[in-house]
Write a structure and sequence with these properties.
With 388 residues, the protein is an alpha/beta fold. Helix content is 32%, strand content 21%. The protein has 3 domains: 110 residues, NAD(P)-binding Rossmann-like Domain (Rossmann fold, 3-Layer(aba) Sandwich), CATH 3.40.50; 185 residues, NAD(P)-binding Rossmann-like Domain (Rossmann fold, 3-Layer(aba) Sandwich), CATH 3.40.50.720; 81 residues, ACT domain (Alpha-Beta Plaits, 2-Layer Sandwich), CATH 3.30.70.260. It contains 13 helices and 16 strands.
Amino acid sequence: MYKIHLVNNISKVGTARFGDNYEFVDDAADADGVIVRSANLHEVEMPETLLAIARAGAGVNNIPIDKCAKMGIVVFNTPGANANAVKEMVVSGLMLASRDIIGSVEWVRSHADDPDIAKTVEKVKKNYAGTEVAGKTIGVIGLGAIGAQVANTCRQLGMKVLGYDPYLSVNAAWSLDRHIHHVSKLSEILEQADYITLHVPVIPQTKGMIGAAEIAAMKDGVIIINYARDLLVDEEALYAALASGHVRRYVTDFANTTSVQMQNAIVTTHLGASTREAEENCAVMAANELMDYLENGNVNNSVNFGGVDLGRKGTGARICVFNRNVPKMIGRITSTISEAGLNIENMANKASGDVAYMLIELSEPSFDSALVDKLNAIDGIIRVRAIQ
């Protein structure tokens, strides 16, 4: 019986995926797996018995990833599950920034008592005139699940789309409209784009990637849309650029003490993935990832260990081994198993930075627990788990 702890309210569509071999517990200390949405786990003491954490969403800033890697706790996320919801918000932001819809609505609301409102609006509507997006150039920075959908939709809106992603995957490339121009330098987007939208994670290489120099290189009147993370942008520099008019609008989903004070900024309440459909999709994907790992040892969409998948477990037992990524580890592990008189039928190994994960399938349906102790005794082993 596997035990699951839900840190936040998780969609019942997802939790219903867990069958009779699972039970929900109130304390993470008793759990094999955890599903979390937005709760901060950095200050939470991770129990040594915990096997995996699934984040029902793409961002994992609320999870101590490195600490989990050192403990052999697999951290999953759900890339693409909320992509359509975020894409729709980006397109909404594109329209709100291009046409002064918010200003128009606020004017009407403030003049609701005007008995001649129908005539008055004809006199003031020119104050809220905007521009069309068709024929304009948009630069999409990051062409993952969300960025690719945004790029394709903008192309359908009649825009010229420039895409920048130095880590563009083959799958992402296949999903892009053939008319999207993939540029090799960020500077090409900064110099050409009328609109710039961000779709990259916050990592050391991307934090503050849109700084004062990048903003200065942009076209006058550029519109920046940020539904990724606020830390991607130097908001002090952006504050000044909005005040001067160099940046026409800034649309962001991240309210903070700086963004809420910006002129010509449209700031929403972190609504990007806040739809019923997205929450259900993320919950289902998180549940499936946890079950596949707990039952089969497969690791897919992990942010701290490489992907390993041997399919559904058959009659043979499986051994999950987490180790430091150092030479001769594979040989030491397989030799120890062979010395126990067991036959390795299949195996897969994937390194990820300083750590690695190996999934081994045996011909035998079970083995003595002493083997786990022997494997754990190997220098460099982080954790060993048996699935029998």
